[in-house]
Write a structure and sequence with these properties.
The protein is mainly beta and 123 residues long. Helix content is 0%, strand content 50%. It has no helices and 11 strands. Strands 2, 4, 5, 6, 9, 10 and 11 form a 7-stranded mixed β-sheet that branches. The protein starts with a strand and ends with a strand.
Length: 123
């Protein structure tokens, strides 16, 4: 399984970014993708998750109403649309995959991780 993230960068407060996570190595939709983020000195935290087979989603309270996770199953790609960005959203964002079939933000559940990409929100 390989995960490749794209779409990070620098954006101003209140702006938007869309992150993409392209997955390879899966032969069906029976898996879950999660987005996590980490700032230096802090634990990696779950942001959002989606189960590809049924579209079940989960969000951290800090991003509810601002971030939307979606998938294009044919492309095996998961997107994280981030709107109304705040300085505290600045972090390295990682996508991760698990064979589990429940959307979860519990980091130990995930077996595969992407390389991460920087998102910086400037004020």
């Amino acid at each position: 399984v390989q995960l490749v993230e794209s779409g990070g960068g620098l954006v101003q407060v209140g702006g938007s970014l869309r992150l993409s996570c392209a997955a390879s190595g899966f032969t069906s939709d029976d898996y879950t993708i999660g987005w996590f983020r980490q700032v230096p000195g802090k634990e990696r935290e779950g942001v959002s998750s989606i189960t590809l087979s049924d579209g079940d989603t989960k969000y951290a309270d800090s991003v509810k109403g601002r971030f939307t996770i979606s998938s294009d199953n044919a492309k095996r790609t998961v997107y994280l649309q981030m709107n109304t960005l705040k300085p505290e959203d600045t972090a390295v964002y990682y996508c991760a995959a698990t064979w589990g079939l429940v959307a979860t933000l519990w980091k130990p559940e995930y077996d595969y991780w992407g390389q991460g990409l920087q998102v910086t929100v400037s004020s």
